[in-house]
Amino acid sequence: MYNIAIIGTGYVGLVTGACFAELGNRVICVDNDSEKIKKLKSFIMPIYEPGLEELIKRNVNKHRLCFTTSIKKAIKESLVIFIAVGTPPKEDGDADLTAIENVSKTIALNMDTYKLIVGKSTVPVETGKWIEHTIKINIKKTLSFDVASNPEFLREGTAINDFLNPDRVVIGVSSKKSKDLLLDLYKPIKSPKIVTDIRSAELIKHASNSFLAIKVSYINAISKICELSGADVLKVAQGMGLDKRIGRTFLDAGLGFGGFCLPKDLDAFIKISEKLGYNFELLKSVRRINDDQVLSFIKKIKSSVWNIKSKRIGMLGLSFKPNTDDLRFAPSLKIIEKLREEGAKIKVFDPQSMQKAKGILKDVCFAKDSYDAAKGCDCLLIITEWNEFKELDFVKLKKIMRYPLIIDGRNLYDKDKLTKLGFTYLGIGR
Ligand code: UGA
Fold it and tell me: How far does the centroid of ligand 1 lie from the alpha carbon of residue 410, in Å?
């Protein structure tokens, strides 16, 4: 059992805190957003993540997990301190690391015994070096400490399972003491553990997320060739994916990768590479291909409905992927912006993110369910591949739509089946 502080209660911090508590540790989660902490104390989740509320409730009730705004208290009472604050993108794509610097300084000023400070947030390589430097110049000289990097690979929507059953645990350290401590902390997790230096651990995270982005952009580029040549990207992905060296995952062509991780980490990786003296052209192309997916989707809509002005467009899905209410860098937002610019009348439905969307989207109607979104529309767009969209009653749908046109940004449906039912159906790359 370890006393752990988690600084930052975003996706990564909250899931990490709850899961370490579940493994039997005593965890204090800290955030300077007092409203958020107040809500968490009353079990009101700031995000929708399957299973998280139950996990938090159970561990708070067993007195293994608590929430506070007092970073000082959390530092004093913990041996291991995880930094999980945000590293948002700056205008130029570079990661903004000021929150990491501020937290490092606060840790230095408030620690009174040995602490192990672990970077959990996704950061550019060499951030660990700066955390160590910041602590060194602010700490009382007699105290010792270690810095480590332990990047998180959880995905939104499956975060708890990803934390407790990861493909690997990456531990970047510079001393035996910190290595032993982290290996012991992760002992209950039966996945391969890889111990590296701190820089390599930091790089593993950026390199992994960018590789996933490459895979998605690659299949999206292939989808273009499929459309031009009359091939079917689903068949191509299936055939490629059976090669074990390639694998089928992350070969779903669609509207491009969104969310708060892949796009921002890709940009930050391009930036840090530039700073280190390498022009990462490959990743720049990956970015361009991704941006183009939304633009060519808009073109597809235009070429199917002719003038967009005053057309009624139904949209199924807003979140950047299913099983989350996260709208950050969701393709839906760009699509809505473009369609609104052209004067479309939009009605949307999403199973989880409507509440968040109401706060940021103007000039769109919010439907009460999928059929309400489709009613009277000239065209129905599939934006997010939620399970409930897979099982629609197409006979009913055809009756209530003004024109039976489905443009499927996630290749959710069987083209032949829908064509037989009388729909005009357009997917991606098929
Ligand atoms: C991603 C990584 O998968 C995690 O390992 C990592 O921990 C996380 O970022 C992070 O850095 O915190 P996440 O952003 O939750 O996780 O979502 P993914 O499941 O990776 O999907 C990313 C995007 O790629 C989504 O927009 C999804 O729709 C898109 N995607 C994914 C495709 O377009 N095609 C695919 O075949 C797979």
Answer: 14
What is the whole-number distance in angstroms between the Cα of residue 119 and the centre of ligand 1? 21
Chain-centroid distance of CA 199 in Å reads 23
CATH of the domain at 7: 3.40.50.720
List the strands of the sheet with 424-426, edge to edge.
365-366, 345-349, 312-316, 379-382, 405-408, 424-426
Is 261 a catalytic site residue? yes
pTM of the model: 0.95
Q: Provide the 10 A C-beta neighbour count for residue 155.
A: 15
283 within ligand 1 shell (Cβ under 6 A): no
Does residue 209 have its Cβ closer than 6 Å to ligand 1? yes
**What is the number of the ligand 1 atom nearest to the C-alpha of 258?**
26
Structure tokens at 83: 């930094």
pLDDT tens digits, 180-239 = 999 999 999 999 999 999 999 999 999 999 999 999 999 999 999 999 999 999 999 999
Residues 6+ away with beta carbon under 8 Å from 84 = 6, 7, 8, 9, 10, 12, 13, 16, 120, 121, 152
CA 338, CA 360: separation in Å to the nearest integer?
15
Is 216's C-beta closer than 6 angstroms to any atom of ligand 1?
yes
Whether residue 157 contacts residue 304, with contact meaning beta carbons closer than 8 Å, is answered with no
Task: Report yes or no on 51 lying in a domain.
Answer: yes
Which residues constitute the domain of residue 103? Answer: 3-196
User: Into how many domains does the chain fold?
Assistant: 2
Atom of ligand 1 nearest to the CA of 385: 28
Identify each DSSP E strand in 64-196 by its residue range: 65-68, 80-83, 115-119, 145-149, 169-172, 193-196
